[in-house]
Amino acid sequence: GALLVSERIDREELCGALSPCSLSFEIVVENPLELYSGAVEIQDINDNDPVFPSSQARLEISESVAAGARFPLESAQDPDVGINSLQTYQLSANPHFALDVQTRVDGSKYAELVLEKELDREEQRELHLVLTALDGGSPPRSAHVQILIDVIDANDNAPVFNQSTYKASVRENTPSGTLVARISAHDLDDGPNGDIVYSFSSHTPAKVRELFALDSATGELRVKGQLDYEEMKLYEIYLQAKDKGAAPGVAHCKVLVEVVDVNDNAPEVTVTSVYSPVPEDAAPGTVVALLSVTDLDSLDNGLILVQVSDVNDNAPKSSQDSYDVYVLENNMPGIPILNVSATDPDLGRNAHLSYTLLQSDPTVGHLFSINRENGTLYLLSSLDHEDQVEFSMMVQVQDGGLPPLATNVSVSVFVTDLNDNAPTVLYPHPNTTATYTDVVAPGTPAGHMVTKVVAVDADAGYNAWISYTLLQATDPSLFSVGLHSGEIFTARQLQEDDAPQHILVILLKDHGEPVLSASATVSISVAEMVKEVLTDLTDVAPTNDPRRHVTFYLILAVILVSAAFFITMLSVGIFKCYKWRQSKELFNSSRSTLYRTPGPFHHIDAVRGGFTPPNFYHQVYLTTDSRQSDLLCKKPFTSSPLGSRQSTMRNGEPGLYHQIVGTASRLPTPAE
User: Fold this and answer.
1) CA 323, 326, 330 angle in degrees (round to 5)?
2) How many domains is the chain built from?
3) pLDDT at position 35, please?
4) How far apart are alpha carbons 451 and 435 in whole angstroms?
5) Domain end: 482, 509, 526, which one?
6) Stated pTM of the model
């Protein structure tokens, strides 16, 4: 007699919204036969979600709707019954709308939107809300719908001009159609409510409407008629802008148009009175007639102008009387280095200037060129500071008058030095095959000067300041070299066990950027006497050394040249004696062995073997053994306001002993 469920029961399918939901049945019992009636009540469970008819709802609400207006919303459906059915609605947070949930007679729920704050389309064109439906189950089931609210525009904004007053000016001969001004207004509304039409204000005079035209769509104000400055100098035009709404908004602006005068009226000459006839004996200055001249134009357009013709009475004038130009040596050819500027207050051809380079020196014409029209001075080739330091030239500036007037401007071009020359070693001579050996005796104390490296640098200033360092030596502890003098000293006392022959390599560097360098090799022998060294060298050299004959002939040539020089000196006369004695006294008073750093002028303060400049004269003293002769070389005395310097050095080469006296001008120190 057990009653069983034969399949899944769906209350909503059997009974729908009917509650309670019950199923009736009858049972027949045999032996004895009996009939029983029964009923089964199907109870609801929360197995259905609320459902909206669509996932999105759209509303159109005018921005002019007042607060308090209500807007019904579509209801959700829930097939469950009782507490499991739809119970309430919720609305997402927003500043404009609230939700009012109402109950129908049958107990179902529906919702309405209530406007709490008025809408403004210009502030927000549309709103997005979310409506949620909830049933009473545990946990509750829900459904959502998107509500899109379009804010419909209302004509609640009038047009606004971007400025209240516009200003423009036109010439009185301006042709028709010329743009005078462009006015602009804007309206925050949409559609026809925001479309703007421009027009003249109602109180605009008819004369203005005849002279000016206004484009109703673009706001462009153009000339329509013929303007006349003498008739009206200023027009005050009033314009308006309207939208196309049912109740259109209006805005107003003003355009001030100034008419600019042009010289369109000829002068009128009026003869006020004429005194006629005029007596033949009338004195100069007698009034013959009274005239009056009028011109309707304004300002300069109304004057009587008297033209004054120009006369070429002004010479060109340069902004500077002279120019100093500094150019780095090794420059690129063809570069401009100076622009000579000049002016001429005359007019026309009289003020047309031309520039010419006056070539007193042919070298200037090959190196420099000037643009005839604008006065730009060009350098045609590369300059060398060591070749020439300064160039002087004259630039002539001439006008085009008849006769022409001209002005001369002096230009000095100074070639500044670059460090493009490495130091040059004068002693020991780097390009000779002869071996120069300096001799120092054993036991020589420390600090004794053995010899000196002499070098020059063709550059100037710091670029020519040479420093000497010991790069390589047979015994580095035995010798040292002066940093700026090139003098080689014994660093310690010579010992008997020191090597008899020493080779020193001296590195010479200048102070330019980049640093350039050279090297010199010095040979030093340690021996008791010079004769020992000479004997050694003699033993080494072949007995038939052809250089002996060359030396003899050189000495003979020196004797002949010296003799000719003295004969010439004696023939000059006694009037040179006074100057000769002056130079001799100056020479004796300033004798010194001071070594100076080479400056802008090149000099040497000591010269060693094989270097005899052509401007030296020679006195030769020969012994019976020509291989041990002494040769004395002196430079002629010269009168120098800067003083003289001399230095004497001996050469250890067999057969020649040189004593050379040189002079050098004082040079600026590196600090100078």
Assistant:
1) 140
2) 6
3) 87
4) 14
5) 526
6) 0.38
